[in-house]
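DATA SHEET
Item: assembly model
Revision: 1
Owner: S.N.
Input lines:
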Amino acid sequence: MTEQPEAIASSSRGQPGAFVRSWRDIRRNPLPLFGWLLFILLLFAALRNLLPLGQQTAEYSPEQFLRQIIFGLAQGSIYAMLALGYTMVYSVLSILHFAHGEVFMTGAYAGYFVLNAAARMGALATNPLLSVLFTLAAGMVASVIAALLLERFVYRPVRDTPPVVSLIVAVGASLVLQQGFIRLFGEAARRYPTVNLYAFPYLFPSFGCDASGTVCRGIDLLDGRYDVSFLGFNLRLLPIHAVVFAAALAFMLALWFYVSRTSAGRAMRAVAEDRSVAILMGVDANRVIVRVFALGGLLAGAAGVLYAFYNHQVSPLIGFSPGIKGLTAAALGGLGNVPGAMLGGLLLGIVESVAPSLLGLSAQLKDVIIFGILVLVLLFRPGGVLGESVAEKRG
Amino acid sequence: MIGRLPRIAVLLLLATLVSCAPDAFDGGGRMLTANEVVIGLSAALTGSGIGPLGVDILRGAELAVAERPMLDVAGYSFPVRLETQDDLCSPEGGQAAANRFVADPQVAAVVGPMCSSGCRAAAPIFDAAGFTTISPSCTNSDLTSGAFESFNRMVVSDGVQGVVAADYIYETLGVTRIATLHDGSPYGEDLVRKVAARFTELGGFVVAQDAINVGDDDFRALLEDIGRESPELIYFAGFALEGARLSEQRFDARLERVIFMGADGIDTQDFIYFAGEAADGVYASTSIPVLDEAFDNFLARYVEVYGEAPPGPYHANAYDATELLLDGIASVATVTPDGLLQVDRAALASYVRTVRDRQGLTGTINALGNGEMLATADIAIVRVEDDRFRQVAIGRVRENNVMITQVDAP
């Protein structure tokens, strides 16, 4: 009992972010040492699989690495789009928007209803581009509505209470949304109809040809798979992966531009810096916060629909895992940092995809590895990879 | 603040003591007294991919009860009723359902739980209360190793299912390199172990073994990893949602020529819906009823009542389990002087564990005394063709010899 306060005090005095300097430092705060040991252990495990020790070939080849990175980038883009939402809400309100995963799920669900209706009416076959755009729009609108409702009825009433209150309320809201969807639409998962959306016939003249070979419609953006040989690597590329990645990148750039170059963005940064001073300066903080939630919802909705386009199954419970990974990505990149969220998301996706085979571990341990790496990163950089002043500012 | 602490500590201590105290009301519980015959049914009735399996079980039991709405005991007639609990196909769900049944003074015996994880978690609770349960679907082979008195199953153990599957893969499909995956459940883990052991014994190679998490969505990286060992077949022991994802995503990982095979966990229409075009040609092993007139009549009645073909494989197993329990109650029950039904739980348990040569829809029911009731029944290998699982072969195990007969396409 007597040691505890001292331990806490010393860990806050010693700087966990700095390199270990002396034995006294280690005695005071052994965490960085453990971090380094774990890091060396991971490195050793990875090297053992990468090098052909006593065997003809290595356990793990560069080709496989590349293939898994591509899968990881796609999944990571989804995490990145969610992380952007977490990061924005955190920077203006300093709360964890825990129900963001359910906002994502709402978008995927709304998209399902539109796409399924289009498939039933036959519009999907005759006009796939329009159907897909409507699906995307429906998902984004539904997610924005969900995010705004959450802001108005869940977060606003507890805005000026201690952070733990808003966290608990957010977890509650997340459960309410999940259970609400189960009651409304049933717990059973649904499958997104398969969409063949052909595009760019001029760029890819020999793709998507019909049986006679006279009409070529280009590559199938949503359901195609193409074997490509690239620098001697045999890859199977899915255009949907590129679509998801490009969408995430575009959203991130747009958001960055919005935050750093527009007056609305300046207001947002002002509220993030100090809400009460911003209000004194004539910034309508409420409006800024509503905008932040709407933007986060927009991104989550788009992510939800894109996710469902390539993973196909949607159920009221799909929000949880991407939601928590998005939050992890935001923390990894530095909460409150827009490019950091993007980077964190992609990094997380790649680690998730590559790490189990690189370290020679079971795929079941995927999440253990991810959260282990999160701990490791936060040990050395408590503010996240790109985290700048957040930790100091809030501290 | 400090003054309040000891009081809270004392309260906590008291609460702990009370919760640790042995059940004071045991003894009377071994004898059931009720004014109706209540059969508990524990199965997962909700949940994607697993709900249809449970609904199928519920319907099988309902049909058995519908046939015998009244049970005659010593000249008295008692109404028969099903009491249903959703066990979620999980250890916690199985436990919760078991606790509710055990606490209910009316429940005579239980059909279920549905999944091996639930069966394993629920069995100690049923044991303590002296209940008799018959699961229509818990196939984990350890369940009948003698640890549980209350557990019986009206389904073939994974020991048999896995052996037939391995033989079919090696002998009939001519595959020598397989990769195995399971979903971390006792069912999946055990089944994979059985398949791998038999496959190696036959001379095949298990080139990769891994496990997945239920609810994960992207298995492409894992499949890519497995693909490096160039297996000819991926054997997956788990349920429909993950099975569908794996079977679909193997196309993204350049494994479209690799055969995908599952077990009874994916033998549902749900699997075919979720896997879409990737379901084509997927194999599964499943326990099957005896194809005779009685079963045809049962199936016709099923379709007539519920308006669709069975969504899962266990309807006949649940029907047989319910029938057997009702027969058992009819034979061991007595009537009290004031006209109430009285069932000696121990007598019911021994009735179920000693039943011999009884004809059921699922085959000849022969209790081995350890909970196994259908040790000699057949296993079918089914394959998806035109959006339905169709039988392609039937396997039979007799003293470590496996016979596989091809079924001609209808």
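QC remark: Chain A is about 70% helix and 5% strand.
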